[in-house]
Amino acid sequence: MIEDQPPARPAQIRRPRQKRSQERFEAILDAAARVLKDREPGDVSIYTLAEEAEMSPASIYHFFPDAQHVFAALAERYFGIFSDGMNPVSDTPFATWQSLVDFRYEASRCFYNANVAARKIIFGAGSNWTIRARDLELDRELALSAIAQIRQCFVLPEIPGLVDRVTETIVLNDSLWALYNHRYGYLPDHEEEYVRRARFAHMRTYLPEFLVQREIEESDAASEVVA
């Protein structure tokens, strides 16, 4: 009688700890980004990446079981860059929450339009479940960041389930961007107004149309103290 064997562990990325190995790891991601400027993810193999990175295939297999895992690691890099770039800023004046939302999404669109590889692996055919799952995690992080920035600039009332609602707006937006990326290969200006209307239509289901600016509230409070 053959005993049941434990299930095989899924192939994973081997993330380096030593500096030299980390540099090789990052060089592989750099090579993937360059290759994806001219090729689709499905046309890229470990051997393609090895040639571009000027490494042996074995050197890449040391870290990655296949090209899809290279793309997942590259997506993680983009998520980190993008998340850092969306941190709340205190020196940008916003008269309305709508102008703040426009600012954040335009910065996001510029980021993706400037990065062909990012569009292909996050919005295009190169996206797999690993990348998509991490993208959804990032959407929630971005929702928290957006809410923090709204609270920084405006007086925001307590709204039940606000993080979930803002996350839904981000997912809705990204779905439309994925569609336009499929149609045009980038996120064009002439379609952005439709995405903008969709964002605001959804956000108006949970946000009031007008929010008091934080500086105005603080100024009123100071006036009352002086009086």
UniProtKB/TrEMBL annotation:
<feature type="DNA-binding region" description="H-T-H motif">
    <location>
        <begin position="45"/>
        <end position="64"/>
    </location>
</feature>
<dbReference type="InterPro" id="IPR009057">
    <property type="entry name" value="Homeodomain-like_sf"/>
</dbReference>
<protein>
    <submittedName>
        <fullName>TetR/AcrR family transcriptional regulator</fullName>
    </submittedName>
</protein>
<feature type="domain" description="HTH tetR-type">
    <location>
        <begin position="22"/>
        <end position="82"/>
    </location>
</feature>
<dbReference type="InterPro" id="IPR001647">
    <property type="entry name" value="HTH_TetR"/>
</dbReference>
<dbReference type="Pfam" id="PF00440">
    <property type="entry name" value="TetR_N"/>
</dbReference>
<keyword id="KW-0238">DNA-binding</keyword>
<feature type="region of interest" description="Disordered">
    <location>
        <begin position="1"/>
        <end position="22"/>
    </location>
</feature>
